[in-house]
């Protein structure tokens, strides 16, 4: 495998992203796990950028790192959970077994592609906002609107639940 | 410069990337001492004080033989400009204190995140007509990059508050995160209206769309977004959110000194506190320039004049224009700070959620209607439809306000009933029975 600048950049982004993903489950304190997740999302966005997917990448930062994880950290800070002692029960061997199976499935899909030279170059500007906007509002307008209604229902439901508690 | 061209292309790319990073940082980082001095002097002037005006003044002796003859009795005034540098030196040479029982990693990380956000916020703002004047990259999602990075700023305050292991810091961090989340929405929607107006998320396109004559009629004024009705409302919403995002007065609840000591940076001192402070001033300056880019025509002169037109794309002229517009934004920041008292927490939330967010959303809808009408029926019809929409909006707002005033309880007297009230005649409140 030839060492190209693209490969170096990929390694610089993907390595820390994988380490951060491990950190999410490995850290004992909740806030560090959350921060690892933020870092992971942030680096994933840069991986999208290297594939010239500008819009998905920046949405990743805006939505996940910027909005959802801030709320996560906010809630963690509000509740301030203590370190949880690990209990010894059947969860652990089952978890390890499922992890191995999942890794096997993913690896069987990823590894054959990894050695494959001469992969197709990405289509230029496939991730630009114009292309995505056109697709969303022409071919996928029905799912898009259905999802927005679903989100609206979620918002109304959460407002209703929050209101009922205060009365 | 031949040796640069002889290098391999990969190394040239790396060097140009480093150069761009430095060029993105310098115009934002270098003015910080001057901005701090400017704020202190302007604020003093507005509050009828003097402010720092001594540091850096040198008066040479009239009689000493040590002084060269051409300097004897001469005075050099720096108007206190050296004060910020002296303060910085003091901060960086103080003893570095980190309290016990802090979360050390997060405690160190928090100011660094603040610095990262402040430095990278302006990476897509164009400083000139040429593509080379956009500091890092003229990406086609430039506006979203700004929103993304400014939303990361919440982490610095939250982590600082959490890691300090201090109740005041925690309260400051909680307030900061709630405030940033609330005001980001209105800010994003206000910017979305401007993106629809310009038809592009790319910052250079947004600036270029503001070069035509005003309303297509007035030839000597450019059609800056702030002159259009939807742009004007967006500018107000964005301006308020901009001040809230940088935690500046009157939105400085996270660091309200008479409620929370110093808020999220109570436990910080020396360099780390200095980094928070510098990051705040850099974010102010960058947000001013973002405002200038989106609403005030970016690097264009305020007058469309054929004589000036060739200078607009000239070397450094655009940079000077942008920095000047940023300085005007800073002046407004300081002016607002000197004018308005700090908001109460419920006022802050009401302003964000019940006024700015609905206004921004309605403005977005009217902008969409306007653009649709302009495409189908022409600009005159669009103006009529738009103005009718804004009229309906105003009437609805006035009706809601009228209704709310009727139902809201009125706080007429602000007198306090004390438990063991001292025996004195209170003739300030005439309708009240006074027990002897």
What does this structure look like?
By secondary structure, chain A is mostly helical. Among the domains of chain A are: 10-83 and 122-127, Four Helix Bundle (Hemerythrin (Met), subunit A), CATH 1.20.120.1200; 133-167. Chain A has helices spanning 5-26, 30-50, 54-79, 91-114, 129-137, 141-166. Chain A is globular, with a radius of gyration of 20 Å. Chain B has 436 residues and is mostly helical. Chain B has two domains: 7-62 and 75-83, no CATH class; 87-343, no CATH class. Chain B has a two-stranded antiparallel sheet with strand order 1-2. A two-stranded antiparallel ribbon of chain B has the order 3-4. Classes of the chains: A mainly alpha (167), B mainly alpha (436). The interface between A and B is medium-sized, with 24 and 30 residues.
Which features does this protein show?
heterodimer; A: 167 residues; mainly alpha; Four Helix Bundle (Hemerythrin (Met), subunit A); 6 helices; B: 436 residues; 2 domains; two-stranded antiparallel ribbon; two-stranded antiparallel sheet; 15 helices; 4 strands
Short overview:
The complex is a heterodimer of chains A (167) and B (436). With 167 residues, chain A is an all-alpha fold. Chain A contains six helices and no strands.
List low-confidence stretches of chain A: none
What's the domain count of chain B?
Answer: 2
Second-tier CATH architecture of the domain at 10-83 and 122-127 in chain A? Up-down Bundle
The portion of residues assigned to helices of chain B is: 55-70%
What is the general shape of chain B? Answer: globular
Segments of chain B where pLDDT lies below 50 for 5+ residues?
A: none
Give the averaged pLDDT of chain A, no decimals. Answer: 82
Q: How many helical stretches of chain B?
A: 15
Spatial ordering of strands, largest sheet of chain B: 1-2
The tally of strands of chain A reads 0
Q: What's the CATH topology label of the domain at 10-83 and 122-127 in chain A?
A: Four Helix Bundle (Hemerythrin (Met), subunit A)
* Coarse structural class of chain A: mainly alpha
The number of helical runs of chain A is 6
Task: Output the CATH homologous superfamily of the domain at 10-83 and 122-127 in chain A.
Answer: NADH-ubiquinone/plastoquinone oxidoreductase chain 6, subunit NuoJ
**Helix content range of chain A:** over 70%
């Amino acid at each position: 495998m030839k060492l190209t600048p693209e490969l170096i950049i990929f390694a610089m982004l993907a390595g820390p992203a994988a380490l951060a993903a491990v950190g999410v489950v490995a850290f004992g304190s909740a806030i560090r796990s959350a921060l690892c997740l933020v870092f992971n999302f942030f680096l994933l966005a840069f991986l999208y950028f290297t594939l010239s997917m500008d819009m998905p990448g920046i949405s990743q930062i805006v939505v996940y790192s910027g909005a959802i994880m801030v709320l996560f950290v906010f809630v963690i800070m509000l509740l301030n959970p203590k370190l949880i002692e690990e209990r010894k029960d059947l969860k652990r061997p089952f978890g390890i077994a499922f992890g191995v199976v999942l890794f096997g499935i993913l690896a069987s899909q990823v590894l054959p592609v990894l050695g494959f030279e001469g992969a197709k170059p990405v289509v230029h500007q496939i991730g630009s906002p114009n292309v995505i906007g056109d697709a969303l509002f022409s071919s996928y307008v029905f799912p898009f609107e259905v999802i927005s209604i679903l989100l609206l229902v979620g918002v109304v439901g959460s407002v209703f639940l929050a209101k009922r508690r205060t009365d | 410069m031949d040796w640069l061209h002889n290098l391999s292309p990969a190394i040239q790319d790396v060097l140009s990337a480093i150069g761009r990073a430095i060029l993105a940082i310098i115009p934002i980082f270098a003015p910080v001492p001057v901005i701090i001095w400017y704020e202190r002097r302007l604020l003093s002037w507005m509050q009828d004080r003097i402010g720092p005006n001594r540091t850096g003044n040198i008066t040479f002796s009239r009689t000493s033989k040590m002084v060269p003859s051409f300097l004897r009795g001469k005075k050099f005034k720096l108007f206190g400009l050296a004060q910020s540098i002296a303060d910085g030196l003091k901060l960086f040479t103080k003893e570095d204190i980190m309290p016990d029982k802090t979360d050390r990693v997060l405690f160190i990380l928090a100011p660094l995140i603040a610095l990262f956000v402040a430095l990278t916020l302006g990476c897509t703002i164009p400083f000139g007509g040429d593509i080379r004047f956009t500091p890092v990259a003229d990406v086609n999602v430039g506006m979203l990059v700004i929103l993304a990075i400014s939303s990361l700023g919440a982490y610095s305050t939250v982590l600082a508050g959490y890691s300090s292991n201090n109740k005041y810091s925690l309260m400051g961090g909680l307030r900061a995160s709630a405030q940033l989340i609330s005001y980001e929405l209105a800010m994003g929607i206000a910017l979305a209206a401007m993106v629809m107006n310009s038809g592009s998320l790319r910052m250079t396109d947004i600036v270029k769309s503001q070069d035509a004559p005003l309303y297509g009629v007035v030839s000597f004024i450019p059609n800056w977004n702030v002159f259009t009705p939807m742009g004007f409302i967006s500018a107000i919403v964005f301006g308020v959110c901009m001040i809230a995002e940088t935690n500046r007065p009157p939105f400085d609840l996270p660091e309200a000194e008479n409620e929370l000591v110093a808020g999220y940076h109570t436990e910080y001192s020396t360099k780390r506190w200095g980094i928070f402070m510098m990051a705040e001033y850099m974010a102010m300056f960058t947000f001013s320039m973002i405002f200038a880019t989106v609403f005030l025509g970016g690097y264009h002169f305020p007058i469309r004049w054929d004589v000036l037109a060739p200078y607009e794309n000239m070397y450094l002229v655009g940079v000077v224009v942008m920095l000047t517009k940023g300085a005007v934004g800073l002046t407004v920041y300081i002016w607002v700070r000197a004018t308005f008292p700090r908001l109460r927490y419920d006022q802050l939330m009401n302003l964000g959620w019940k006024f700015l967010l609905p206004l921004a959303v309605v403005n977005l809808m009217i902008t969409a209607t306007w653009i649709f009408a302009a495409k189908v029926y022409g600009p005159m019809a669009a103006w009529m439809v738009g103005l009718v929409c804004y009229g309906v909006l105003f009437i609805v707002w006035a009706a809601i306000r009228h209704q709310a005033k009727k139902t809201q309880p009125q706080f007429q007297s602000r007198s306090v009933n004390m438990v063991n009230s001292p025996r004195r005649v209170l003739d300030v409140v005439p309708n009240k029975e006074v027990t002897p």
